[in-house]
Specification:
Blueprint (H helix, E strand, L loop, with lengths): L4 H21 L6 H15 L5 H8 L6 H13 L5 H14 L3 H17 L3 H14 L4 H106 L10 H31 L7
Helix pairs in contact: 1-4, 1-6, 2-3, 2-4, 3-4, 4-5, 4-6, 5-6, 6-7, 6-8, 7-8
């Protein structure tokens, strides 16, 4: 932690310096109003009153005590929240007006404290270095400089670690994205292959169906041609047969009629022969008795 005790010692030194200056300047200066404002500011600061900084600002009108009064104004402002910028401006006025290296070192030290509380480590470090340049024996400034440097290193380490983690996260996200893109591309290729295979199968099925229909049609055409040829041949044979058959003369028995007559005669002859054979068979069995 920062050594706040150093700031209280600084204000006490300022009060001692103020008393010393009063001893040598009361009889020389007529700016009693400025001196009175400084004295009232010290009393208000010790009492914890908010008006202390404004009283010290009035005291800056004193030609000999302007630097001291500006320093006290800065110390008063440090006690207020959100008044860091005003406090640093007051310390800067003290640095410009003061000829005392101790006061200058304390002013730079408090500027560093103000910046450190705002986490402005880089500028705080520079302020502490300025405090040590003005007074190398300012141990409070040395301690806070070391503390600020450690804070800066910790922040840098955290930033490096965060950057490394961000880079790793980014790389992992990129790897995941690449993997997802590759999987999506593979899925798309698989779908395309399946679609191509299905299209090829559909095309083959369509060709097979068309070929089958064509074969059936060819077979039907072939059968029809054969039937037409057969019908044509039968018609031609019939015509030739009709042309070869002689025409029947009126009153003449046709060949067909003659065949039917002969067939009828043959059947009649067969019946007669059958009867004779039967009768003959019966005659052999009958015993003839002679009348002797």
């Amino acid at each position: 932690m920062m050594k706040h005790a150093a700031t209280r010692v600084s204000l006490a030194c300022a009060m001692l310096a103020l008393v010393t200056c009063f001893n040598c300047s009361w009889s020389q200066s007529e700016d009693y109003a400025a001196k009175a404002s400084i004295i009232d500011g010290i009393r208000a600061f010790e009492a914890g009153e908010d008006r202390a900084d404004s009283l010290f600002v009035l005291g800056e009108r004193h030609s000999d005590l302007a630097g001291l009064s500006a320093y006290n104004a800065g110390r008063s402002l440090l006690e207020k929240s959100e008044a860091g910028q005003e406090a640093r401006q007051a310390f800067q006025r003290a640095i410009k007006s003061a000829s005392d290296q101790q006061l200058t070192s304390d002013a730079w030290h408090n500027i560093g404290n103000s910046l450190l509380m705002e986490q402005d480590l880089e500028n705080a470090i520079e302020a502490y270095k300025s405090a040590l340049r003005a007074n190398p024996r300012n141990e409070a400034a040395r301690y806070n400089l070391s503390y600020a440097l450690r804070q800066q290193q910790d922040q840098q380490d955290q930033q490096d670690q965060q950057d490394q983690q961000d880079q790793q996260d980014q790389q992992e996200q990129q790897d995941q994205k690449d993997q997802q893109d590759q999987e999506d591309q593979q899925d798309q290729q698989d779908q395309q292959d399946q679609q191509d295979q299905q299209d090829q199968q559909d095309q083959q099925d369509q060709q097979d169906q068309q070929q089958e229909q064509q074969d059936q049609q060819d077979q039907q055409d072939q059968q029809q041609n054969q039937q037409d040829k057969q019908d044509q041949q039968d018609q031609q044979d019939q015509q030739e047969q009709q042309q070869e058959q002689p025409q029947q003369v009126e009153g003449q028995i046709s060949k067909e009629d003659m065949e039917r007559i002969l067939e009828s005669l043959e059947r009649g002859e067969e019946e007669v022969q059958a009867k004779l054979m039967k009768a003959k068979s019966q005659g052999k069995k009958k015993k003839i008795e002679k009348d002797w």
